[in-house]
Amino acid sequence: MLKVDFTFDDKTYRHAMNGHESVLHCHHYMSLTTKLAEDFADVGGVRILREVAEDSIRPLLDSYHQTHRVPTGDERLEVGREYYSVMGLGEMEISGDETGGQVKLHHSHVDEGWIKKWGKHDRFVNHFSCGFAAAVFAAAFDRPARSYLAKEKASIVIGDEMTVIAVTQA
């Protein structure tokens, strides 16, 4: 079970999770960030959001793995799954190995937030979770950033029962 130490600095008003500063979010923030990436897709907005998510999550995972001596593989995938939930991003099921795998989101803060703000959509929008999944796999198998590609195959926002993300080696 994931061990998380939440702290708050009374002087800077900053929150931290296991020593890493974090931002409390709401569906408005995530939906607007996602929409901004979509609006600027022609200049790489979606790619940037995915990469920023991957680069932001990775240090948190690496630090946890090192501090708690989590061996590579399934146990590290589990750490990623639990962090996703602890961070309020949804309910994740994750499976795979160093060649890739699959992430199922039974609940998704990004998808469900989008629906609350604008209704169903005709395109996949869970770019943040794709970056998160790429970070989880890279951290689980000690690979550098951009070693894995994460691509949505089904999505709550378009009407599917759950969001499904396929993760493959880049």
Structural features, described:
- This protein is an alpha+beta fold and 170 residues long.
- Helices cover 43% and strands 25% of the residues.
- It is built from 5 helices and 7 strands.
- The strands form 2 sheets. A 4-stranded antiparallel sheet has the order 4-5-7-6. A 3-stranded antiparallel sheet has the order 1-2-3, with no helix packed on it.
- Strand 4 and strand 5 form a beta hairpin.
- Helix 1 (27-39) packs across helix 2 (45-67), helix 1 crosses helix 4 (109-118) and helix 3 runs antiparallel to helix 5 (127-140).
- The protein is globular and about 45 Å long.
Short description:
This protein has 170 residues and is an alpha+beta fold. 43% of the residues lie in helices and 25% in strands. It has helices at 27-39, 45-67, 74-86, 109-118, 127-140, and strands spanning 6-9, 14-17, 20-22, 90-97, 100-108, 148-154, 163-169.
How much helix, percentage-wise, in residues?
A: 40-55%
Number of strands: 7
Rg calc:
15 Å
Mean pLDDT: 95
Instruction: Give the spatial strand order of the biggest sheet.
Output: 4-5-7-6
Structural class: alpha+beta
| DSSP strand content | 15-25%
Q: What is the subunit organization of this protein?
A: single chain
Main pleated-sheet profile? 4 strands, antiparallel
Q: Termini, distance in Å?
A: 30 Å
Give, in order, the helices and strands. Answer: EEEHHHEEHHEE
Number of helices: 5
Global geometry: globular
Low-confidence stretches: none
